[in-house]
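Protocol step 4 of 6: structure prediction from sequence.
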Amino acid sequence: MGKYVIKCGKLYDGMTDVLQDNMRILVEDNKIVEVDRHVASNKAEEIDLSCATVTPGLIDAHVHLGIGTWSYRRHETIYESPEFKGMISLRSAKESLKRGFTTLRAVGNNCDDAYGAVAAKRLINAGYFEGARLMVAPYYTGTTRSHADASALISSNPSVSSFIWDRYHGRIYGPDMMRDIVRKQVKHGADFIKLFATGGFSTPTDGPEDECLSDDEMKAAIETAHMLGRKVTSHSYAPPLIWKQVKMGIDGIEHGALIDDPKLLQYMIDHEVEFVPTFCPYDGVIHRDEEKVKTWPYEMQIKLHKYAEWLCRARKLIVDSGIAFGYGTDFTANHNNFENGYEYETMLNSGVDPFRALSAATRVNAAILEMKGQVGAIAPGYFADISAWKRDLLSDPKALLDCYFVMKDGKVYKTVTVE
């Protein structure tokens, strides 16, 4: 750590939807001290980013850290060891940092990774490894045959499938077990709880309209987590189940890709329900890119084609609504989990205003992570998490795939370009 003055070509500070010219940022140790056009050097080392647009270090609010390579994920889930999956979390956090994403919200894992994301968070915080700062839900919390049940990938062998599922830390049967699982995850380091209340697209034995938790189980999770000072967010798709959960007091909804009910979106706005829509994974079918769709597992192709019109209708409604959604990637089946910039491309190509997309990856996500005042803005007192980009953020959908500079906690790291 040291003392730096950063010269910005343009600055997006994460608080106002404008690009400011010729701003300077004074960094001392791990904090931002001053932001102004006339910051004095005061014997600080100068970092010249006058050729780039400077932003806060970006935040991805929906990542699955324990995946090595997306195209190999199913094999890893069944055949790799908990140690392998846990160590992959460190690699994922490091690679995201190189791409300008300095904070990640890890929304669980659907296999035994030995609390890998929690361990990765502790090791990064202790300075043993480089990586983005982490906010962690250790495991998906769900029932047999739900989207949380990775043993469904080998359901044709019941004895092996049962063996795997019986050792999964997030499996629940009934409200009492739900309470205990929530308490255990908090005991072992959960920052929040992630529910799998419905099925999904990428798993073989469930669908996005399936309701996989009972009302009593969902209420038990929300009540117990709130008693322990933790938020609860839910993997959910269709309006009927989401209506039910938001009326129960759930804090957040992940995906919501089938929300075609404007009254539900308004209710979520009025009750400040956090929403991370993860647009990118559905792009192949929404934009009729059959070559991309063919790279996905067969059952995923079938389900995406089945729901294509519904997905398109809901996407347009969500984008046209006034809801303040977060930026989350959910890359398990089309990109590696550290290639976080692709969601920006999807947002802009879906008609999202660039400033709305940038605010999703900064101040909106900072609030979701309960880190407002620490990350998501370039302002005095915030952590010195700073990224810079040479492409035009307001016109180039691929701009966040080309990170020019990244600093986290006042330390400069090397960057990598995806494209």
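Step 5 (inspection) to follow. The first strand starts at residue 3 and ends at 11.
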